[in-house]
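Changelog entry: the TonB-dependent receptor record was regenerated in this release. Current contents:
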Amino acid sequence: MFDRRCLTALGGVLLALAAGPALAQTADEVEVGEVVITAARSEAPRATLPATVTVIGSQDLTTQQALGASAVETVANLVPSFSPTRQKLSGFGESLRGRSPLYLVDGVPQSTPLRDDSRDGFTIDPFFIDRVEVVFGSSAIQGIGATGGVVNYVTAATPKLEEGWAGKAMAQTTFDDGMVGDSLGWKTAGLVGRDMGAWDFVVGAAYERRGAFYDADERRIGVDGTQGDLQDSASWSLFLKAGWDLSETRRLELMANHFELEGDGDYVAVAGNRATGLPTTSVRGVIEGVPPTNEVTSAALSYRDGDLLGGTFRAQVYAHDYEGVFGGGTFASFQDPAIAPIGQLFDQSANNSEKQGFKIDYERTIEAVPGLRALIGLDGLRDKTFQAVIHTNRLWVPETTYKSLAPFLQLRQSLLDERLHLSAGVRYENATLEVGDYRTLWGQGNQQVAGGEPSFEEVLVNFGATYEALDGLIAYASYNEGFTMPDVGRVLRAVNTPGADIDTYLDVTPVISDNVELGLEYGRGPLRASAAWFRSTSDRGALLIRNADGNFDVQRQRTEIEGIELTGRWEANDWLTLGGSYAHLEGRTDGDGDGRVERDLAGVNIAPDRLLLYVEATRGDFSGRLQHQTFFERDFEGEPAANSFEGYAIADAVLTWRAEPATFTLGVQNLFDEDYVTYFSDTQSPTDNLSYYFGRGRTVTLGVSKTF
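Regenerated structure tokens:
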């Protein structure tokens, strides 16, 4: 909870800043309405978009990276209704507004909805990200997967200089403040580019090695040997963006990104004891099998013509190749007496996804109707996914191919001297799911399943309005439909009905979510504020339920989620800024199938309520940020009492010194060394002592960077 220590610290920082050279970072300053949100597929100002939007700019990204934060941790720290992270490689259970977000890198989908292993937050190094666009709520404008919203990582652009090279470089070291030893980690990265007139490019590389994590009592935190862990791991990444200006209005651009993260496998977990409050810890040891890894390659070729028949034409073709290896064990699902005695067969799985797709759209004003602007487009996607059991060469999830073609139309009408903007759109999703005949693993029931090619046709609509009632004050209302697949891999591998036929198996039908939203935004002078209410429903949601083997199965139940989000930011003067945000979420589901929701969504499906407060300041060459997050306690009606969330509060601080010839940073996570159980661990499986994880204690990150 928010305690007196944080109030004292906030007050102390303010007094220190008032007295002389101080802490701070001024966040990116933008007027409401002037930012163009590329994740919305339209080159229109923010003021015309009837949805809650957060843009995390380069300065805010730099501040969070000074804490050693990953890309997904940065989003979680700054977006009020995003779940607290698990501090693991897997983001399983992390959600936006209680549903899954769609992750993009420059518009290229990173998520793996057919077998959602929740590692889509770790596909690019944050050093290569220039800004993050977060569009809240269900949306179909980017296709499959965005039932909770869209998180678009926009990568670094080529420095625009008349001649010569430009770029940036950085080095960091991170360690636990009381146990430096094996907690020591480090990172180095560089990015360089050149503008040669018609041609330009930027290229970069990053490498990071992470040490062991410790909690506030200096206990080594337990490694997640199955889902994968960030601690005791190494990652490297390569990035390239090159462009060719064909004319003043036409540009061809190539983006490529490769990211690999692999565990070192130097530690094994030691079970804790939930009854006594003893957390899962780690000791040095050698794991069996291959360490958990992520390997991702994304590439996109984009073309833009800003003056084609009076409008803007955009086209993109992309490819995405992903493999995620999970830790092994003698899990019941993997057993087969034809291979080894029951209980003795060790194996591990790897999730594979290959995507190819294209996006084409054209946008222009319609002269016959003053103020009318139309966007028309066509998207295509082919996603082939399977999950293999790698040591015995078996398929846990059969090869599954999702193919879709989706034409769409968006209209926006400006009225009342462009103070009122009405929008409406329709998207026709025509998809086919191809699955061959297969047999489930012996440990999953050994059922023969007839494959098939079920097809889905969905007409998804949206409409909304924004109105600038006063200068800087915008009110908006909207209705949006989003869709995704219900983790088909979990469904297929768990089929236990003899003679099942995929063509008629209802559990593989899409999840359609309806999102209604009302909001206000104000941005004028020193004050920025917003308030939003939303309600999201799905008649056949994809609920995650833990089974006896420790894995999660998908159950199709009606879900209803409702919430409010509040944000505020006040630039008190030219050196001091105060701000904060608050999110309250409620989620219910229909557990007995009677059409009425009667129990709460569990912690794996919804985030806790959260309050974020922060202060930023700058004096001369010094700047800094102090942020404090409170995650409020929560009970879950219909869940075991032991799954209640106790709540916790943590503070982080960043100090920056812009010296010559470099910039130096000091970041401290969990400033007050709070001892806490992570949200996911606290709200799941009260009898699982091997997954009783505490959060990281006070952690220090020292960094140096140079821009040239």
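DSSP finds six helices and 32 strands in the chain.
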